[in-house]
Write a structure and sequence with these properties.
The structure holds 3 protein chains of 3 kinds. Chain A is built from 10 helices and 10 strands. Chain A is an alpha/beta fold. Chain A has a single domain, classed as Rossmann fold. In chain A, helix 5 packs parallel to helix 6. By secondary structure, chain B is mainly alpha-helical. Helix content of chain B is 70%, strand content 3%. Chain B contains 10 helices and 2 strands. In chain C, the strands form 2 sheets. In chain C, strands 6-7-8-3-9-10 form a 6-stranded mixed sheet, with helices on both faces. In chain C, strand 9 and strand 10 form a beta hairpin. The N and C termini of chain C lie far apart (47 Å). Classes of the chains: A alpha/beta, B mainly alpha, C alpha/beta. Chains in contact: A-B, A-C, B-C. Chains A and C meet through helix 6, helix 9 and helix 10 of A and helix 6, helix 10 and helix 11 of C.
Chain lengths: 285, 266, 280
């Protein structure tokens, strides 16, 4: 079994009108099966309302399945005895950088998780230092979070999760509120965690360029997994992506359009270099 | 602009007072305030003034920052002085129209003014030299024993520190919403009181909604990071007394003893 | 009819040592009916600039003229200016407050002192312009989806019948579908009414598809002010200031360097496709 496994995970919530009468039932997540290997970098794509955030909250035991099961490191998330183990093993980073920083000083915020877990003082300091260094925010440790940029705040949030020594980290649209520079900063930090520290990463996003380096990509729509595969496999299905109203990187789109017009190009081109190489190969031939 | 209002008014510098344990400063401030009501003679006030002056000197905070705190209470100060001046019965000094200033009135008015002024400067000294954060920590630790009589000490301290973290964010948000509504032709300035109060609705509704949304998000983020109240919690920065803190307690004790002595023997 | 910024400077923080020069000698002419993209990274001064356009901020030095009149003249009617230069802030849905969608959109025109009839007509027209259907009119704005809320908020400004519509990052935080819907709606509005639109963004890709002129801000100054084609030619300089040209620009540049006879200045996918097909 992988580090995260779900079996027919289904989550329903009841919509009520103003008087509290039941209006209907919404199935936010519909029979999702996932199996994530330790050390993998997986990406979950989908537009707002596709159920991707609801799915993420199950991995951290913030929500519990209506039907089906979620296991984190072999522990069933519905087993209350393991609640705190699960939350420390599967860390979570949320969308809004302002609403998840608790400390008034960067280092104190990073220490918040370990404090809650009852880690001894001396070790908290060691963990805070290594976590801040891992995201490149060590020199800001004495700063007030209010003075940081969005990208920096998110990196602090990530450090706050790493300090809990999790086996995996779930990022729920961590870049949605950031500018392009902030986005790059955060993705770079996340990739380093995965490459260097070997932490399993589940990245939830709607930016295509952020998932190019993922090991596996899941595309969600209406609570179900609509597509799954490697980034290259996913990006070669341009029409399906467009039907789901998702972005396709301009290179991939350009290659696709050229192919439609009869140019002989390989499927799923992801980078500028690939496209340029393929085109100049054609030209030479 | 709203953003310019400084809260907590911490003055960053390196000094003996800054380095003291927040508990010492809290106890000292309370002790100083009590001492102001213990002494009742001019000699006593001279002792208090000397003590305060030395502390200000040690704190390296420019005196004008202390006085800043006074501005807020100028009105209260004036009213206290006026009431005491005219309404205290006793030996008349000056009489004009129906108002009489008595000797006792004058004495009490001056004393009250001095007490209030010292009180404000004394407590400003604490907030100027202690970060809101360590102040909260100090309070949590000092009130620790109250836990046993079911006072949620940890929860109150946590609420205070969260409030301190979010005040600047909400102020900035207020500024933003206000501008957005002005851009839609809203007018927050003109009109009578009722009209002004009504004009606040487009500002307050969005602000409350935002505050609730943030509270919701934050609660979830805290839970995700294993927060479950004060139990089982360790501290990253536990408060520990050092030599300087013990000396400070000693000095405080000496000061308080001399105030009591002045009261008894002079 | 135009908006002119004449040597506008803006700094905050009175203490001379701590003063921040948010705008440095900005000169711009915004004529009628243009579709303009205002680009810059966070802290480049673009949001500060935008707040000068409707008089929310007053330049430290320099002047702003709307239709030839100095907007900071003592007896200039600021309220009227704010109805003519409509400013939609970032995350505008955070300003919604009324009990239903329609009432919220009425807030702007009502503040202008219009008759109820006129107010309602304008609110109705504005909601239609942003593509909100009648069925939502009497719902609480807080029950709508993210993209819908934002469109209602934009309608709230449109109902004031502005001649210049300034949108500060109207797509921030939306998913690709919500983003496309908003941008298409704005483009359609521009086409139908001929209103001047200033789109503040940090995404070159978004802007390149729609605008005819790009103003690039950096450290409080105007770095470039030209057509997208010309601005993207400076892709190396743009990178240095933390921005980037659309991916297409990089592809075309790389192809041209490899000796393919393509126009390196193509800015959209459609242009690029034609160029490459021609060259092959």
């Amino acid at each position: 079994m992988g580090i995260i496994k779900t079996d027919k995970l289904t989550f329903e919530y009841i919509r009520r009108d103003e008087e509290g009468n039941v209006e209907g039932i919404t199935r936010a997540v519909d029979e999702v099966d996932l199996d994530v290997k330790q050390g993998d970098f997986i990406a979950i794509l989908g537009h707002n309302g596709s159920g991707k955030s609801t799915l993420a909250k199950h991995i951290n035991a913030i929500l519990y399945p209506t039907e089906g099961t979620v296991w984190v490191d072999g522990m069933d998330t519905q087993d209350e005895n393991h609640l705190w183990d699960i939350r420390s093993e599967a860390g979570m980073v949320f969308q809004n950088p302002d609403n998840q920083i608790i400390g008034q000083v960067v280092e104190e915020d990073v220490g918040f998780g370990p404090e809650n877990m009852g880690v001894p003082t001396k070790e908290i300091w060691e963990r805070v230092e290594e976590s801040l260094k891992a995201v490149g925010m060590y020199e800001y440790r004495k700063h007030s979070p209010n003075k940081l940029s969005g990208g920096q705040k998110q990196r602090v949030s990530i450090a706050g999760v790493i300090a809990m020594h999790p086996k995996c980290i779930i990022l729920d649209e961590p870049t949605a509120m950031l500018d392009p520079n902030g986005r790059k900063e955060v993705i770079r930090a996340v990739r380093a965690l995965n490459d260097v520290e070997g932490i399993t990463v589940v990245l939830i996003t709607h930016y295509m360029e952020e998932i190019i380096h993922a090991d596996m990509v899941y595309v969600m729509d209406k609570g179900r997994i609509a597509m799954e595969g490697t980034p290259r496999e996913i990006f070669s299905r341009v029409e399906e992506l467009q039907d789901l109203r998702l972005d396709v990187p301009q290179v991939t789109l350009l290659a696709y359009e050229l192919k439609q017009r009869g140019v002989n190009l390989p499927d799923g081109i992801l980078t500028i270099e690939e496209l340029v190489a393929a085109l100049s190969g054609l030209k030479g031939a | 602009m709203i953003r310019d209002i400084t809260l907590g008014q911490y003055y960053q510098t390196e000094s003996v007072i800054h380095k003291l344990d927040p508990r010492v400063k809290l106890v000292a401030t309370i002790g100083f305030i009590i001492s102001l009501f213990v002494v009742d003679s001019w000699v006593g006030y001279v002792v208090a003034a000397a003590f305060l002056a030395i502390m200000i000197q040690l704190s390296k905070v420019p005196f004008r920052f202390m006085v800043k705190g006074m501005k807020a209470i100028v009105m209260i100060l004036m009213i206290t002085v006026v009431f005491n001046l005219f309404l205290t019965p006793g030996e008349p000094l000056v009489t004009f129209w129906k108002l009489t200033i008595t000797k006792e009135g004058l004495r009490i008015a001056v004393m009250m003014a001095v007490r209030l002024a010292f009180l404000i400067v004394g407590s400003s000294l604490m907030t100027l030299t202690t970060t809101p954060n360590s102040l909260t920590d100090g309070m949590e630790k000092l009130m620790g024993p109250l836990k046993y009589v079911k006072v949620p000490v940890h929860e109150v301290a946590m609420m205070m520190s969260i409030a301190l973290r979010f005040i600047p964010i909400l102020l900035e948000e207020t500024d933003k919403i206000m501008k957005a509504q002005i851009a839609r032709g809203a007018d927050f300035e003109s009109g009578n009181l009722i009209k002004k109060a009504k004009a606040m609705v487009p500002l307050l509704v969005p602000l409350f909604i935002s505050a609730f949304r943030r509270a919701n998000d934050l609660a979830m983020a805290m839970e995700a990071r294993c927060y479950r109240g004060g139990e089982h919690r360790t501290k990253m920065k536990p408060l520990q007394y050092h030599a300087a803190d013990r000396i400070a307690y000693l000095i405080l004790l000496l000061y308080f003893a001399s105030c009591v002595a002045v009261r008894i023997w002079l | 009819m135009s908006l002119i910024l004449d040597h506008v400077n803006y700094s905050y923080g009175d203490d001379t040592a701590l003063a921040v020069h948010a705008l440095k000698d900005v000169n711009l002419v915004i004529p009628d009916g243009q579709f303009i993209g205002l680009i810059g990274h966070t802290g480049s001064g673009k949001s500060t600039l935008v707040q000068h356009l409707n008089g929310l901020l007053k330049p430290t030095s320099g002047a702003i003229y709307y239709n030839g009149e100095d907007i900071h003249d003592k007896d200039y009617d600021k309220k009227n200016l704010r109805s003519k230069v409509g400013l939609v802030f970032q995350y505008p849905e955070h300003q919604l407050f009324e009990i239903d969608v329609f009432k919220d959109v009425c807030f702007g025109p009502k503040n202008l002192g219009l008759f109820q009839k006129e107010t309602e007509l304008r609110a109705y027209a504005a909601l239609k312009q942003v593509g909100i259907e009648d069925e939502y009119f009497y719902q609480s704005p807080f029950d709508l989806s993210g993209g819908q809320k934002r469109r209602v908020a934009i309608a709230g400004v449109l109902a004031m019948k502005p001649e210049i519509l300034v949108l500060d990052e109207p797509t921030a935080g939306l998913d690709p579908r919500g983003r496309d819907e908003i941008l298409d709606q704005i483009a359609k509005l521009k086409e139908e009414t001929g209103i001047t639109v200033i789109l503040v963004s940090h995404s070159m890709e978004d802007v390149a598809r729609y605008v005819e002129r790009i103003i690039v801000m950096n450290q409080g100054s105007v770095l470039y002010d030209d057509t997208p084609r010309e601005v993207f030619q400076h892709y190396r300089e743009l990178e240095q200031v933390g921005l980037a040209a659309p991916q297409v620009t990089y592809i075309m540049q790389a192809l041209a360097k490899k000796g393919m006879k393509v126009d390196p200045a193509a800015t959209t996918i459609a242009e690029a496709v034609e160029e490459i097909l021609k060259a092959l």
